[in-house]
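Please decode residue identities from the backbone states below.
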């Protein structure tokens, strides 16, 4: 089975932006469970945390594509968000820009109903989740009204959000 996110990244020429709005994803993820049990990534040991997706990020940003991820989070944050924050430095090291926005600061932004990727400002990939945060479906959309909503939502979130290195989980 092909991964639609990887397909979108492979085709991206200028930008790939990703908005995450859930407070938890995939509760049975082995890496999350290991983190809950005390496993931490060692920034000094790159081989221990570099993973295949980071090769993709590095390749995409290396060819000039701006890759941005914004996360809208409830505060106080969930354990899953603490985990995400703790393991985000590899994404930044690979060239992805990441920002965090407390949910209270997003209350007046018109947002789509689910997480998305927007590639080159033209093509949206929505991801639909189960109640516990497992991916159940993805959908490509290109209608101008949908693209405009997503583009505007991401721009508003990005403008208000705090860069990863400055955001402190609460």
């Amino acid at each position: 089975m092909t991964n639609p996110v990887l397909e979108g990244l492979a085709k991206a020429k200028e930008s790939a932006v990703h908005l995450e709005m859930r407070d938890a994803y995939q509760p049975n993820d082995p890496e999350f469970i290991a983190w809950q049990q005390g496993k931490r990534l060692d920034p000094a040991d790159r081989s221990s945390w570099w993973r295949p997706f980071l090769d993709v990020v590095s390749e995409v940003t290396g060819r000039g594509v701006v890759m941005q991820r914004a996360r809208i989070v409830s505060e106080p944050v969930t354990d899953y968000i603490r985990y995400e924050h703790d393991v985000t430095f590899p994404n930044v090291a690979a060239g992805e820009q990441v920002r965090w926005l407390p949910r209270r600061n997003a209350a007046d932004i018109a947002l789509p109903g689910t997480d998305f990727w927007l590639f080159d400002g033209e093509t949206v990939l929505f991801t639909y989740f189960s109640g516990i945060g497992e991916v159940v479906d993805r959908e490509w959309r290109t209608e101008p009204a949908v693209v405009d909503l997503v583009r505007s939502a991401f721009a508003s979130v990005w403008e208000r959000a705090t860069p990863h290195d400055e955001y402190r989980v609460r």
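Observation: The mean pLDDT is 96.
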